[in-house]
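ERR on first pass: missing label on line 2. Operator R.T. fixed the label and resubmitted. Corrected input:
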Amino acid sequence: MNIRRRHDTIARTLRRNGTATIDELAHEVGASRRTVLRDISALRYDGFVIYSESGPGGGLQLDPQSIQTSARLSVAEVFALLISVAAMRAAQNLPFSDLADAGLAKIEKSLPSEKVRDLRRFLQCLHIGQLSPKQDLSDLGKIDPTLLPAFENAFLEQCLMRFQYRDAKGAKSSREVEPQAMLVLQPLWYLVAWDPMREGFRHFRMDRISAPECVTGTSFRRRHVPFEKDVSPYSDTVAPSSPNVQTK
Amino acid sequence: MNIRRRHDTIARTLRRNGTATIDELAHEVGASRRTVLRDISALRYDGFVIYSESGPGGGLQLDPQSIQTSARLSVAEVFALLISVAAMRAAQNLPFSDLADAGLAKIEKSLPSEKVRDLRRFLQCLHIGQLSPKQDLSDLGKIDPTLLPAFENAFLEQCLMRFQYRDAKGAKSSREVEPQAMLVLQPLWYLVAWDPMREGFRHFRMDRISAPECVTGTSFRRRHVPFEKDVSPYSDTVAPSSPNVQTK
DNA sequence: TAATTAGTGCCAAAATTTGTCACCAATTAT
DNA sequence: ATAATTGGTGACAAATTTTGGCACTAATTA
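pass 2 clean. output:
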């Protein structure tokens, strides 16, 4: 039996049985007592909390709260989770945010540092505000799932982004813009971009964007987005409390 | 050098340099060409997308989108993330929910099946509704971070839960109740429980609960919570569309 | 055609993991 | 007090896995 499978089997058996002796585990996984002891040591090192008691009636016991996942998430999935929690936190009182934060912090730790930098820069362009009650929500659609990776890439590479846009009147147009920020006016999400053709900022409702793609070989400079910004994506990131409110 | 560290180093070098030949990587990690080739094969098996080109000027290239995390989250952290995304999804139009779902599905996959069962059962007791505009929010406080594990444990073990409660008038009392569900009326979160002393359901605002603990050795039966239930925690779980609306 | 680079199969050498054994510490039952 | 049971450690040889070297193929560029 593989060493990894053995670890998994031992953890599973401990979970199922509640308590088990080393000899029982050794028989279960088909290995020697010594090897199981080494495995237990490795599991403890990996963060599993395993209590032990000597003597007759003793044995090992696994703290069920210490069970850990080992999922491997892609960067885009991590971004999506982060955005969810960040937006939720900003918009309302999210309970258990400490736990969610701890999880996200662990995820962050396991990412390469340059990806963490990207990620924080990306979240800093997330603006959250209040939706005007006059807004028409009748044609609210679903957001293209390829939009996030495309925007992420264009934003970080600082290259232009091209997509098809359907405006409020249903008119379609092809756009090529500089993606600068995301705006959340729940339940609406907007892409805030500088349109070089029209020489001005434009808001694009994300559910009206289709066929997004990055225009390789282009580049643009970051612009100051005319928005109130008071959202800190992480609780451990101290947001500057200075009122940098601006209106264009 | 350790095999894991070698894999990490190779992935990091590929990210940093954009492109690299096998001989370069072999020199970087201090291993032979053959070993690096085996490592590349293992990385590909693990989900890293690595392109290769033969001939002069060729080499290996890593798709940055395929970079993966390897964070190990505790069950409580996964719960917190799930609740965030589920509540967010239910309350409004959450973009990129497909990606967040994919991430959560992966996390779920890596958990033992009995934990997944627990988790789904737990999320099924999450009710989301609309807050009455009359509600006083002036004393909105922070929710005790130990509440989630305590509730989770009490709910799954079906044992009583004891805590201190501070009601709207500031009066404090000690409670011992059967936890049945969670109710979200954003930004307020409620614990819905059957109070055996008072013989009826009671709502406890979570930010007014302190010192929660499970009463071991007790047990209770699950009761039908008098709530409208139309929230599906997962997109891939088909919610029964039958109108099981009930009012006590 | 020559040079360069990815990729595979094979086998012995190197390294790591495993099992055995002796032994210690703690706890329970007699 | 003593025996029995159970967790835990160190040392060393045996078993297993990983690694390196080699020969070779396939693709691409100059």
